[in-house]
Design goal:
The structure is a homodimer. Chain A is α+β, with helices and mostly antiparallel strands. Chain A has 14 helices and 27 strands.
Chain lengths: 512, 512
């Protein structure tokens, strides 16, 4: 048996989907649970979510939002109120029908028949309806507006084909829900939060995303307008990484969020909602990982630096460990973008080579080896996760502490540059139906290789063409890109499928 | 009708239970939702939880714990494994039986019969069983131990008589779950986390709590030992504010958490769990509130300082608002115990007196008025929530910014001193059955007045006596106080009920 050339098997090129599962497992980020479709998020994965949460929460608060918490359960009748909403996606969900366990005739535990609820409760797949009912109570006059609230919560959508972080029955997210006096203000809010997501994705996740508006067919059920950020991952598929919805007065009408206006009339509020989820973790793994495992962008990495004491002989163990902990303490005193540097010392009694590979697979941005010879010379051995595994530098200890922030920023910039180059290379203008179909057709349909990308193509605006493309190729319109974002996208042309006139190009891709 | 003398009606003395409900409502902390037993936590209430979370999370991490996330759903069979556990409390819970909605014959939405789950899922009332099943997979050898993990989560226990923050169907909490190689290590962990809770309650919530061990009858179902912190609130009842359980090998045996020991034998791990919840918010409100509403301890207050611009004339409005925002910016630059000061400017176009009362009721530690005359003199008007409402001081603007941390610390110390004096005054040694029954018997049984307190009394150790006291008086043993905590409590004596010998006094009280 030949030595594998990389830590993760298969490689990205050989089988991207399987590579992804292996990365999640090898990096100890999450694992499937015994509850179908639900995952256990392990500390190394949850740390990513904590960092994402911490930063986004600060950005939400800086834009005037506050956090609150709304019930997990939604009465069935609430969902019935917003018919379009339920038609759209809320049907596959967890339904609570009983509230007590008892021993049945066979002695086994069962839901007590006497505890059946008069009205079943649905576990929130999203909270529009229950928050709408609450806002209806809070809003009386224009003086009560705007309401600018966010919630960090777990939600459930009963997924039949779960995939860790990307699609699970239960997942973690944030959902902002705002209510406004005017349409213009709500539209401004919708765009502002899309901007927050775009900035966060670029600066913290090192993900260059396209922003734009969803076509009517891809819109959030019940929304007037859905804006989104779309990321490209390494198999050239799109991931919808965040959405911001302008809900018009639809939910306000369904929930009766009315207010006495400045002109003394009763008006319905204008509402928005916006969210990102643990899916961001799946996205960044697929965007930055390599054939050796996860590669975490420093700004969100669970730990920035992992210190690996090298202990060849028992007599130097104490001195090496002391030096490792002293270095960790020094590093933790330094701040990286405002927060203390996150440092781990791996002093486990495990073979050094195996330990090093573990941290490569986990994607720690910087690995620092420190051994007896380093103590003598006052140096450390540094390996960056964005470089070849064996490439090391040997700065003086103090010099490393001094420069650690700059090194991390450089890694962050490298990841963003790589992802941007990859995205740009695979964002292609396509002008014929033939080329369009060729672009999205795998050479080996039984086991599709990495192919395709983002196609910028003209479209006649009809749902029929959208449906046909989806059926033929499993390709959807990811967004109608924000004007000015992609040079020339707003020039008129002819629909790539029908040849009919089109005012602008839109972005097509296969997606997760 | 005479003018009420305080903002909250009824007063604490008149009807403590109703006073509490009114405080929660008037302070805009939370409200009941349309879902029976579930609450909506409003921003002013959720801010308290965020601050509690932030501080406790730091304390957990400083003691070596990491966060993770486990599924919301627990398969019914998991609960069946730990029979004592289910016997104890897990019966009243939300049970998911279906996973899809459909339109029924009458057109109304209903759980689709075809989507019935083969095995019902229970919403976690606590996660011991599902985490146990996960740890069983993670632990192979003693090298995998200890596992030191915490989870921030929502849990559900179907409460029939909900009370906001104290007892709701869904509530927020943290649950630490650890697994260890030895009994001694697990016991040490159990005590360590109790210590974290005691410190947090005292230093941050200004709650002096008694620590101790629960009697067998009051223990967490399935635990070998339950340690707790017990707070006294102003109606002299106890609140169990946090618990730390030594689970022995019970859950390890039920979940099969086994490991290869250092001596090459298969052994069961020793586990612990520990938690506090949004109940802490109810506890601090009942401990510190007064007849004008909530009084928030500065260390956890949603906002530390509220600035109220005073705008008697339109021509000075701009200057006053500018000064208010400038002061807020200055204050936010200062740090209070390591975090930026939390400052709010209430510039709403609302009557000044009404606005002032709102913030009194909300319990903001410091209210700062700033008006045209203050601008001229370079001063501000400061009112402390721990002092009389009309008592104000008029420091120079810069002097206030300089001293704000010291003032907040002084308020914090005052609240702790008051709560300690109240607790000590109402912690009473009782040596006769007559006195014991008199202490816990209200003069007006139809509408019990504030009475009783914590009785330090001898007990023969029998469950029968415990049950009799509970049935007669609704009084329970809150804890067997940690030795050394209450002078003389460990001296032997005679059971207050039976006259039989007793080795030490225990703490009895009515409780929430």
């Amino acid at each position: 048996m030949s030595q594998p050339s990389s830590a993760i098997s298969p490689t990205r090129a050989a089988d991207f989907a399987e590579w992804y599962q292996q990365v999640v497992r090898a990096a100890e980020l999450a694992e499937p649970s015994d509850v179908r479709g639900c995952m256990v998020i392990k500390p190394w994965g949850y740390g990513l979510w904590e960092n994402i949460q911490h930063t986004l929460d600060g950005m939400f608060k800086a834009t005037g939002h506050k956090n609150a918490y709304f019930p997990l359960f939604i009465p069935l009748s609430y969902l019935a109120k917003e018919a379009q909403h339920v038609e759209g996606f809320a049907k596959e969900c967890a339904i609570v029908t009983h509230h007590r366990l008892e021993a049945g005739p066979d002695g086994a535990l069962r839901p007590a028949p006497s505890s059946q609820l008069a009205e079943p409760l649905v576990i929130r797949p999203t909270s529009e309806t229950i928050i709408g009912a609450t806002y209806a109570k809070w809003v009386q006059s224009y003086r009560d507006l705007p309401i600018l609230i966010n919630q960090w919560a777990n939600v459930v959508r009963w997924e039949m084909r779960p995939r860790l972080f990307l699609r699970t029955a239960e997942f973690l997210w944030q959902e902002g829900h705002t209510a406004h006096e005017t349409e213009a203000e709500a539209l401004e809010e919708t765009e502002k939060m899309l901007g927050v997501y775009e900035t966060f994705a670029r600066e913290h996740l090192a993900l260059p995303v396209y922003t734009g508006e969803k076509s009517a067919g891809e819109r959030f059920p019940g929304a007037v307008q859905t804006l989104c950020i779309e990321a490209m991952v390494q198999d050239r598929k799109a991931v919808q990484a965040g959405t911001s919805h302008f809900l018009g007065q639809n939910f306000a009408k369904a929930s009766d969020i009315k207010f006495l206006s400045r002109t003394n009339t009763q008006e319905f509020a204008w509402t928005t909602s916006w969210g990102v989820s643990t899916r961001l973790i799946g996205t960044l793994l697929m965007a930055h990982g390599d054939d050796d495992g996860a590669v975490l962008p420093p700004r969100v990495a669970t730990s920035h630096v992992v210190i690996l004491p090298v202990v060849p002989k028992e007599e130097t163990r104490a001195a090496v460990l002391d030096a490792a902990y002293a270095l960790a303490a020094k590093l933790r005193e330094t701040r990286y973008h405002g927060d203390p540097l996150r440092v781990e010392v791996d002093a486990r009694d495990v073979n050094g080579g195996a330990k090093n590979w573990e941290w490569i697979k986990k994607g720690a941005p910087l690995r620092v080896e420190i051994g007896p010879r380093d103590l003598e010379k006052g140096t450390v051995a540094i390996a960056r996760r964005d470089r070849a595994n064996k490439e090391k530098t040997f700065p003086a200890n103090a010099e490393f502490v001094e420069s650690v922030g700059a090194i991390l920023d450089d890694i962050q910039a490298t990841l963003l540059a790589r992802a941007t180059a990859h995205r740009d290379e695979h964002t292609v203008r396509i002008d014929t139906k033939e080329a369009f179909y060729a672009f999205f057709t795998a050479k080996n349909p039984d086991k599709p290789e990495v192919h395709g990308g983002f196609a910028l193509a003209h479209w006649n605006g009809s749902p029929e063409v959208e449906t046909q493309i989806k059926e033929d190729l499993k390709v959807t319109i990811r967004c109608i890109p924000t004007p000015g974002q992609i040079p020339g996208a707003e020039e008129p042309g002819r629909c790539v499928i029908t040849g009919e006139p089109s005012t602008r190009r839109v972005l097509f891709a296969k997606s997760y």
